[in-house]
Design goal:
- 43% of the residues lie in helices and 19% in strands.
- It has a single domain, classed as 3-Layer(aba) Sandwich (Rossmann fold), CATH 3.40.50.
- A five-stranded parallel sheet has the order 3-2-1-4-5, sandwiched between helices.
- It contains six helices and five strands.
Length: 167
Amino acid sequence: MGVNMRIGIYPGSFDPVTFGHLDIILRSSQLVDTLIIGVLKNSNKVPLFTTEERVELLREVTKDIPNVIIEAYDGLLVDYAREKSASVIFRGLRVVTDFEYELQLAQTNHKLNPDVDTVFLTTSVQYSYLSSSTVREIASYGGNVEQFVPTCVVQAIQDKFKKLRRD
């Protein structure tokens, strides 16, 4: 990567990736030379999709965005950002209540690594209510999630719940 290339990271669980995430990915990818989507291996949560599955779904839905790289990571975000020479962390804000938590996180991260700034992007209005947990809940009851997630994700969710019902 070139010396003056601006690298950004958009971290998250993406369990599953939604149109809201995709909105932030598209917009943040235009602000940096390379956007790394950091898929968090969160040991505190039991995800619907494995880390590998989430990485694959993200690769599928971002395949037409040339400057996007999908990677799994664990540990502190600021350490990951340093390792990747990232200068910016992107976070999406849906509602006012997100802001308090995100602000605290951004200030802590900046204290831990002053070379990284956090940029908040407000989610487009049509996705402001949307969260992965809402999508998981609707899908768990057999509800239609086509308006919330890309087609390949709809199929993956349906397959996952069929498998869970069998096991």
